[in-house]
Amino acid sequence: MKSLYVKSLVQGNVSLDVATETVTKFVNSLHCTQLPDNSYPKFRVAQVPKGEKCCRIQGFSENDSNSIITNYYQSGPFTVRTSVIIEIIMLIIEEPLFDILRTKEQLGYHVYCSIRDTFGILGYTVTVNAQATKHSTSYVDNRIEEFLKHTRELLVDTTERELSQIKEDLVKTKQCIDVHLKEEVDRNWSEIISDDYLFDRLKREIDAIRNINIDEIRNWWS
Fold it and tell me: What does pTM read for this prediction?
């Protein structure tokens, strides 16, 4: 290749001079020129149209009745505060979600919800691993939608005291110290390849968590 755009991360017990020298030697060994700024690939994410869109894919094995139903709900561009709000909501609904869809309705053996950050576009998903011999994918989809209609009630019923406990637990999780250098490297490298470069992401998230109240969370969902 004549032109390249190189991203690198040097982390550990190494000085700035040594890190710079090492990367420079590597780049020079490639014998390439710098990729022009207008040629650098940009990540683009499609905006999901309002309303319901469905994509169904037939399984590879005709004898396998297992199906995975994932409902994705797109929010908008990333902000630390919005990402924290969605994360807290997922923590509030995850237990009722499992209790209703998995334990009571027996829709599938694996039921969970999670926040999604797709190249800077936030959203969340609800996933159910079901068996087509017991429930159709359309039925499971409808039950997921029905559950989410009651999320507002779950948020209304959540007290400030309960929220404080959720926030405290979440902060503790984000304050966990890296045991191995690889954990810190993986986190920082993820920031680089995603073009986010929020190397203090955890600190920003913790600050946002501590300043969020239940009314703000309810208003976001509404």
Answer: 0.88
pLDDT tens readout for residues 138-187: 999 999 999 999 999 999 999 999 999 999 999 999 999 989 999 999 99
Domain range for 33 is 3-39
Distance CA 85, CA 208 (A): 9
Pairing state of beta strands 110-118 and 66-77? unpaired
Within a domain: 130: yes
Contacts of 197 (CB under 8 A, 6+ apart): 191
Indicate if 35 and 76 belong to the same structural domain.
no
Question: Are residues 95 and 200 both part of a single domain?
Answer: yes
Burial of 34 per CB tally in 10 Å (0-12, 13-18, 19+): exposed
Query: Is residue 86 located within the same domain as residue 136?
Result: yes
Phi-psi sector, 12: left (phi>0), alpha (psi -120 to 50), beta = left
Q: Is residue 48 part of a domain?
A: no
C-beta separation of 99 from 106 below 8 A: no
For 75-88, write each residue's pLDDT tens digit. Answer: 999 999 999 999 99
